[in-house]
Amino acid sequence: MTELSLKAPAVTKVPGAESSGTREREVFLPRDARRRTPLRTLRERLRWPLGIYTTPVAILIAWEILARTGVVSKTYAPAPTSIVRSATALWQQGVLGPDLAISLQRAGIGLAIGLTVGIVTGVLGGLLRSGEYLFNGLVQVLNTIPLLAVLPLMIVWFGIDELTKVLLISFGAGVPMYLNLFAAIRGVDQRLIEMARTTGAGTWRLVTRVLVPGALPGFLVGLRFSLAYSVLGLVAAETINADKGLGFLITQGQTYLQTNQVFVGLVIYSLLGLLADQFVRALERVLLRWRPSYEAS
């Protein structure tokens, strides 16, 4: 008969742990709670030297080679270096700077409005039953409506001025923030809430010490989606009836068959999305230092 061998779980001894009698106290920690060794970090750096940028950089290099060798026509997909030269020329001509500034202004105002509405309604819906009945059904309906489907109606209601573009961005940013924040608050462990109540914690202490830290990961997920959808809303708003901004730059490039100019706008949109993701990652490293998380091998 074959014997079954059971491997004991990994044990990490905490420095300075007190001894109980002659036996040393041993603390079982998950693998994710241990520090990375320098050797492991070095191996990861050698394997993925650019981290999350490894694949995008590899695609750019392959794109450059294919464009230079003529495999990919420059009319349809110019080389990345050619796009960079076009962006530099547009900046020196005083075209790209003002268009980028107006796009950032639109995105900033719309994002601020959307996040404010999403956070306020998400907190009310998560904490109060009446807030759930008041907002949840409406937001679930709005969540199924695409941004491009809302745009014609907003043009009919508000015209083609800046208000329509800002509201479209706000719509894209507010809905995911509400959904994720509502789910995060309702997903806080009930046992933690009961434990806080048994220790005599009031409503304010319960919210600040239990609900806010427990809902913080979900809030950051909602922030990531809100930033991404605000960029999508910016794209949708600026490509229709815009006379300035990155969308107008792309439309002009399409009209006059300037493919480089179209790619300049697309690259800037993608960089805005990448910067938004890196911003949320930085917030996670600062705000969620207390929470051990899984580290992929």
TrEMBL record:
Keyword Transmembrane set for record: yes
Annotated membrane topology: Multi-pass membrane protein
Predominant location: membrane
Locations listed in the record: Cell membrane
GO annotation (BP), single: alkanesulfonate transmembrane transport
Gene Ontology CC entries for this record: plasma membrane
Domain ABC transmembrane type-1: 100-280
Keyword vocabulary terms for this entry: Cell membrane, Membrane, Transmembrane, Transmembrane helix, Transport
Membrane spanning residue stretches: 46-66, 107-128, 140-160, 166-185, 206-225, 262-283
Pfam families to which the protein is assigned, alphabetical: BPD_transp_1
Domain of life of the organism encoding this protein: Bacteria
InterPro entries per record: MetI-like (IPR000515), MetI-like_sf (IPR035906)
Region of interest (Disordered), residue spans: 1-25
This protein's record includes keyword Transmembrane helix: yes
Signal sequence residues: none
Family stated for the protein in its record: Belongs to the binding-protein-dependent transport system permease family.
Protein name: Sulfonate transport system permease protein
Species this chain originates from: Streptomyces echinatus
